[in-house]
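Fill in residues.
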């Protein structure tokens, strides 16, 4: 890990992915952050177990939770727009009619971009389901 950050006059090695996330967040003036890879000693199973037990409280106190899936790639903007469309639901349209419309060829690229988004490395981490649900 060639990237490091300084915390309380200590140098801490971080992954390139975390470095990218921090750069992105600081560009948007996000200043108060709790980052599990930094705040939890990943080498200490006992501490990690205790901290995972506290994550529910940590996430419930958060005003905003940001998940870093990586830089824009694989038409991730299209995938996020499609996710918003799915989350909005059919509205006044019949649900079956709406679902069938989403299966039409014009939406195939949306599905492919959504599939690529779901295959990013973040989803491979052990406790992402807990993080996502609690957030």
């Amino acid at each position: 890990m060639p990237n490091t950050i300084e915390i309380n006059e200590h140098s801490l090695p971080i992954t390139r992915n975390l470095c990218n996330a921090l750069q992105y967040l600081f560009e948007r003036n996000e200043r108060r952050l709790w980052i599990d890879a930094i705040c939890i000693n990943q080498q200490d199973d006992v501490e990690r177990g205790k901290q995972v037990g506290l994550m529910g409280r940590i996430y419930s106190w958060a005003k905003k939770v940001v998940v870093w899936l990586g830089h824009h790639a694989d038409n991730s903007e299209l995938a996020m727009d499609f996710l918003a469309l799915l989350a909005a639901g059919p509205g006044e349209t019949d649900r079956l009619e709406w679902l069938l419309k989403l299966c039409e060829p014009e939406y195939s690229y949306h599905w492919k971009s959504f599939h690529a988004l779901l295959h990013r490395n973040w989803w491979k981490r052990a406790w992402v389901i807990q993080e996502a649900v609690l957030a």
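The longest helix spans residues 45-61.
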